[in-house]
Known about the structure:
Helix content: over 70%
Structural class: mainly alpha
Number of strands: 0
Oligomer: single chain
Distance between the termini: 18 Å
Amino acid sequence: MDALSMNAAQSYAASRPATAPLPGAKIERQFGQVAEQFAQQLQGAEQIAQTSMIGNADPHALVEALAQSELAVETVVSVRDKVVEAYQEILRMPV
């Protein structure tokens, strides 16, 4: 191993802990909670829409539920787009 590759290996090893998740941060749990809240939001809007079709729901509640679910879907799509963009950027990085 020459000095340049040894220096690169040492630099990589030194920067590796910076990319590790923080101790105690359970990102999987947080993503799970967000996904669960999103699913609950969509289920609630769907239930209100179903009761509206029967004629038992307030039209204002239906519009409000649809607006909230639209905002939730737009947020999820935006996050997905950012994740895909970051993944593509990683793929473009030189090795």
